[in-house]
């Protein structure tokens, strides 16, 4: 066990789904679950392969409705590799005695390895070591290496290596009643004696996908002269290599795979492209070396070292690893968003939600080019967002709650409650707050990078159109002389309507309204920052008038924020809901994370109760510092006292089931300063979300990327008190117990800043290069840092007064 590996001993059929998700390998272009090469899809194994942005739509008749869903398509299974001794059965873990079995995901090198020893029904004992990678340097390549050694037998074996395009989307049990055949086979043929090729096309989006596999066997590094046969079916092609093996002699089998699609750039067509890619790809050892080198570079930028961190350190690395596999630097050249469940499974159909809010803080400070690309995914869908707004009777751009290929609303109209077996109307598209999140992400990206070009050409337009949307949502309430935003849902998905109302939607969700007040101001700020010329161009193109800008300003000062019992109300009228009997339900059901489903199955509804699935109002304290909130409340003309924060936290803490993995991240952060033990407990629970599948079966359907990135951000922000405000990178470390050691590198305004915290010391070094100095504050003291400088601070145990004890030129030039 090391901080760099995820290790499993023994094969456990029940755990396989979870292992497959956690051992997924990917490179941002595509990812493949950690299913065994020899396994067939079924109840135990699910060898899914997903292309970033590889969607397709299908219609299904369900509960008397025709519904259309867009899914991230399960692409042909390129893993397929198996063997059989002459007269024996194809290798199948369920049919042999497993003598030894270890599975290791190496996070450092991005290689998945299985070490196996087994005995078949005829008493043949075999050692098999399998290694696999999805190439991080060339995103079109993947490779498998098998080392097979007959321990007590000799004879002829047949190795079968296939490309299987007969796959459907069957990874989520709840979706099984929905149409799931997305691929049309086009061709399956040999390219030469050791290479096969498969071409398929999605049946609605017409995405053509081609795969090629080159399979070769070696003994003592000499190519084996195998007898070769082909097996061909529509959508399937396999190559069977037969040759002799000798007891004690290792045979090495290499399968090198290439994949291209009709969306790729710089190719003629995918079938031709894979032929070239696979022919040019080096052997496994060469691919493995170049792959490891890119991972080394990624880790140099992205690692976060927690000395003595043990299991937490390992999990943090696992989270960084999966984040980088989903949105690697390769997405910079793609038109893709960040799917909430990674490219690791089919839950939520690979859709893109507001989870970016939890993911971008990590990327902004490491590889902001990725954030920029992911924000451009939103920018390209501005036209569709404008259409959505117009059709709903609003102005500007209204982004969908769930987004896929085109940016239309992909939220389902009906969802299945597995507890009751009923299909229920789904109103989650009313979570308009996703629009505030996109605007927030634009601004935070800009603050960390100072990327003026992005702001001028994309960011400002996004902010303006989102501000315009919100302004058109706000309605004047003459009786209280405030603006309302009605008929929406907040992040808490347990509440989609008032129990006394017939129509879905809630009024004045506090989180939404405060975010809107903030966004309206940022739209103004963006117009000011981009310079007079560009401002004029943009305002003319978008027909933004001074009156409109003045209106945003007016609304940003007069939005309504509900309160009750001295706390922020999640939404207006929240106080009229009934208290939920947490203890009774807990003792009745045990796991009540998804009490909405339990209640619906009982004929009741979560809408009646003061019970939230996830942090909603508390999001405000997650996203804004106390100073920013104080400014925001002041801007709105509400009295803000610091006590409002702990009171509101305490109130909702007791009324949240954490039915979303995002929830613990938020709660851990908001308690970081006031209740460190509870905050750490929540952080530890959040760290366990996927590795221990705390929701009891959801991780096998895909990882929770927001929670994964959120934990890393929590550690980096929690320990250092990191925030960017007014062009200053601010640290406010609070170390009640001396920290064993935290080491990380952040990119800020184009510079790398190396941060080490140990005991009561904090060291900051700024990388060489660049003419401009950066402004960094520790507590409230602002320091101007020049390139190559290093500052060391010291603080009394438990104190907050950080003093400089050393200032020098840094020798580091990272
Ligand atoms: C949460 C949402 C989240 C979605 C995708 C849901 O369970 O309630 O906040 O965006 O999962 O992760």
From TrEMBL:
Substrate binds at residues 354-355, 613-614. The active site is at residue 493. Gene3D superfamilies: 1.50.10.10, Glycoside hydrolase, family 65, N-terminal domain (2.70.98.40), Maltose phosphorylase, domain 3 (2.60.420.10). It comes from the Bacteria. SUPFAM superfamilies: Galactose mutarotase-like, Six-hairpin glycosidases. InterPro entries: 6-hairpin_glycosidase_sf (IPR008928), 6hp_glycosidase-like_sf (IPR012341), Gal_mutarotase_sf_dom (IPR011013), GH65_N (IPR037018), Glyco_hydro_65_C (IPR005194), Glyco_hydro_65_M (IPR005195), Glyco_hydro_65_N (IPR005196), Malt_Pase/Glycosyl_Hdrlase (IPR017045). Residues 724-782 form the Glycoside hydrolase family 65 C-terminal domain. Residues 317-712 form the Glycoside hydrolase family 65 central catalytic domain. Keywords: Glycosyltransferase, Hydrolase, Transferase. One of its GO terms (biological process) is carbohydrate metabolic process. Residues 8-263 form the Glycoside hydrolase family 65 N-terminal domain. One of its GO terms (molecular function) is carbohydrate binding. Belongs to the glycosyl hydrolase 65 family. This is Glycoside hydrolase family 65 protein.
